[in-house]
Amino acid sequence: MKILALDSSGLVASVALTEDDNLIAEYTVQYKKTHSQTLLPMLDEIRNMVELDLATVDAIAVAAGPGSFTGLRIGSATAKGLAFAMEKPIIPVPTLEGLAYQMYGTDGVVCPIMDARRNQVYTGIYEFTPVDNKPGDCLEAVLTYADSKYDMRVIQEQCAVSFDEIAEKLNGLGRRMVFVGDGIPVFRGRMKEVLKVPYTLAPAHRNRQSAACIAVLGSVYYRQGKFVDGAEHVPEYLRLSQAERERAQNL
Question: Cα 245–250–251 angle (5° rounding)?
Fold first, then answer.
């Protein structure tokens, strides 16, 4: 199965192509330009570099939100345009789940945090549970361990809350955790003040959005039937935009 994936939900613009268990290409940039300037040229560069025939793609996975309102609209519009032109389905992958999947297989709790402004974060809580293969003997147990697979379980659905609110839930779990996302630099100081459980911060190569993760998780959701056609797909913002809030206040 061949998946083309897009993520423009945050500061990073990212495009990737996977085929079955192989990452064929990924192009990721976080540098000054807007996603409207980068996303399509990045996609075209990948298409040319790997001689991709778009007709061979099975589905388009996209980071579906929450995140930057403008970024989500750009990613959504690009995915919908491709879906219509290629007559392929869209796999909407929740942004926070895609971020959490960066830490696949960790034995701690994963808490992605994105800076949502107004003293809030877009966040959720996730864990990876081993798939029960029930090995029959020692050799099979060793082989199973070497090829172990995990399911990602949602402890807290993605939401927009204050950092202190999500920290209270994390403290209540009483488990070691790892943070990932662009909210880390913003709330690093507050972490030290309010968290009562051990935690680590994802390293640079794992702490931002990745279209490769969107593609891999998207393939899981595709097999589960979690895909839509281009006309059905809409981003998941989780809250009103600033313009919509101001309009509501003036009514």
Answer: 100
